[in-house]
Amino acid sequence: MDQECCWNRDVIEKDDCPKIGQGEEDLLALKRQRNLEKCCDCPRFMKDLKSMCDDNNPLAPVLIDFLAEYSRQKIQIQSLVSFLDNKTLEMRFFHELGSVLQSSVDLDEVLSVALTAITAGKGFGMNRALLLLADRETGMLSGYLGIGPKNIEEASQVWDEIVQNDMDLQTLAQNFRLNKLSSERAKFHDLLEQLTVPLSNKDHILIKALDGKLPIMVESAFQHPDVPPEMARLLGVDTFLLMPLITRNRRIGMIIADNCITHRSITEEDIHSLETFGFPVAFAIERASLYDKLQIELNRVTEAGKKLKEQQDLIVRMENMALVGRITSSIAHSVRNPLMIIGGFARSMLKNSPESDPKRSFIESIVDETDQLEGVLDEILNYSDSLYPTRDFWDVNQLVETALSDSADTLTSLGYATGYAPGHDLPPVYIDFKQLSYCLRTVLQNDINVISNDLSIVISSQSGEDCVILRIDDHSRQISQTELDRLLVPFSETRDLGTGLGLALCKTMLEKQGIPFVAQADVQDGIRYTITLPTRKEEQP
What we know:
The protein is α+β, with helices and mostly antiparallel strands and 541 residues long. It folds into three domains: 14-87, no CATH class; 104-266, GAF domain (Beta-Lactamase); 390-539, Heat Shock Protein 90. Helix content is 54%, strand content 15%. The strands form three sheets. A six-stranded antiparallel sheet has the order 3-2-1-6-5-4, with helices on both faces. It has a five-stranded mixed sheet with strand order 8-10-11-13-12. A hairpin with a 3-residue loop joins strand 12 and strand 13. Helix 3 packs parallel to helix 10 (268-351), helix 4 (107-119) packs antiparallel against helix 10 and helix 12 packs parallel to helix 13 (433-445). The chain starts with 30 loop residues before the first helix and ends in a 7-residue tail after the last strand. 25% of the residues are buried.
């Protein structure tokens, strides 16, 4: 019998076997391996086998049986190899997914990974996934996040992008979180907002699935007796899967997954895989949520500790200042009486002394120095009084007009021009009127000796957020910011600038009332004082 197939030759040429392709040249000299891998599918071998049957060769039926069994086992082995390959990919996927979920404590990252895993082709390959979270405080199951295309055009674009970039799951999730999380939230906002169900509604299919702790495959949703018609219309699909997220009998949330674009059937294997996936996702969401709450509590504790330290520092400062106040008050009262006697005698002597008296100049010096010392004593006593402000609600315009009226004679005698631009409809401010009046008079009459040619002071007021902003622009005094800062420190006396207590006392008084006092110096424009007066009582320390 002439044979067309090369199955019985030990060594063949490449053209002798049509089944040997490029890169398989080693089979030319390997008869047994060539017979197993190539001859069974070779048309030449089948012709030879048919010829053997026609010739009633007794080996033909045996070869046919062997060949059929070999083909059957080959197909079975290929099926097993394919199954093992799929399981290997699935195990790698679950390992990658688990490592990300176990290591992350960021809720957005966890949700990005979870929903990307459900919708990615390298994951479960669903078209759309919606996440609902249970809130025990509000007692509601509410839509939180969604992912998936809205139409076939968007789906094709997303799938092409994934194929071209060939990204792994973690990279896909990171890309989604960085570039698409906000847009997906906006896209599904209206849908998720309507997917809100009270946890107490035991008859709703979402709550049934959550309480039952098992996935529910919903088919024929528009005719399903347990699916509310508005929910079916909202989802727009006839088949979807409800996957509850449960940890230690605690209800975390719900995942709604469907194939709204491809309409591919959801298989039992899909349900089983998603069920396996549900617990680590629920646990990761719970851990991330607890971490967020822990961070909030930690921030609260940190802020409370900071405020406590500030209060302790304030108490120490107030105790120190109270001590200083008692000492200065005691000294001032002790010095004031003899000083007033000296001043009274000196003024009496000056009044009765003729202009030609050679001692008159000495008496005038005594009167001037006595007046200056009395002014210093008044400031010291005011410093003592500033430790205990008495606040109430007052009109800002009345405050400014009173200070201008009290300072008018002094300012006019020195050649100053003053102006006030009041704000409209100013609310009452919560202040110590006496102390604020003293501060305004001190600012208007301060004894900074560096005088310019522009002897003008302009006051303005305007409403702010829960406050009234009072500005005093003194164009007559031109000093540097460094020199002005020195004057805001108590008792920093200098010959060039002044006594150094007035402005510092104002700053101290206002700080006791929780009122910011800012002094900004400009060598060209003078000094701007900004006082922010509160309009709400509860904001005061």
